[in-house]
Amino acid sequence: MPIFTTLISALAPIFLVLSPITSYTDQILSIHRTRTSAGFSLDIPLIMLTASILKIFYWPGARYDLSLLLQAVVMLAMQLVLLKVALDNRPGWRGELAGAPFQAGTKNAAGARQRLWGFWRWRSQRPYWEFLAGLVGLLALLHLLLRPTAASLYTQLIGYVGLAVEAVLPLPQMVANTRARSCKGFRVSVLANWLVGDAMKMSYFFTSAPGRVPWAFKACGIFQACCDAGLGVQWWVYGDGAEAGG
């Protein structure tokens, strides 16, 4: 058991920092190669970008494990690339970058009426980057005004919110798969990395020294692992065949 704990302590931080690269590189290349992001949920970059930004601002107050901070930074960079590639290759949206951001003029945009102001279903790419810049600016302002510490309510709040947001990562993809009755467009390599990452994270979180990994990481990690397992069941049931009704 001490040998296992030592191995996990040595290897898990490296795996955690590199996991955003191993998880999403294949998805990025697949979208770029096929010139379509059909079947891929744009909510995944939304969730991971929001969670990563919140976790980065959580660190100054909580001072949690450095490898988890580095993972958030690497994840932020990877998700920015993934979002850009996915937006550039939206089916039926290419070349419409100058359109009004809240205009519902296509089948894709019509679905945006189900969200307030068509949030994260904008025609133009600009509102996506403006939203992210606004989120960073707001958190930076709050950080300067509140000067968070480990015991502050603000620190605990953004920590739990950020980790809770990340924990629901699989849900939009699960909804998309259920509606299409297919996992087409979602790379099995991403799912495999998620499942392996869950196993590694759980081992690392619960074998680390007390206080090194806050309970927020552990609780949200357990929930996310359950959701990832559900996504694995979907892949087993639906596979990556053609979408139903096509």
From TrEMBL:
Task: Kindly indicate where the leader peptide sits in this chain.
Answer: none
Q: What kind of membrane protein is this, topologically? A: Multi-pass membrane protein
Where it sits in the cell: the answer is:
Membrane
Q: Which Pfam families match?
A: PQ-loop
Q: Which InterPro entries match?
A: PQ-loop_rpt, SLC66/Scramblase_ANY1
Which GO BP terms, alphabetically? phospholipid translocation; retrograde transport, endosome to Golgi
Keywords of the record, alphabetical order, are: Membrane, Transmembrane, Transmembrane helix
Question: Membrane-spanning regions, if any?
Answer: 6-25, 37-60, 66-87, 128-146
An annotated GO cellular component of this protein is: trans-Golgi network
This protein's record includes keyword Transmembrane helix: yes
Q: Does the keyword Disulfide bond apply?
A: no
For this entry, the protein name equals: Pq loop repeat protein
Q: Which organism is it from?
A: Lasallia pustulata
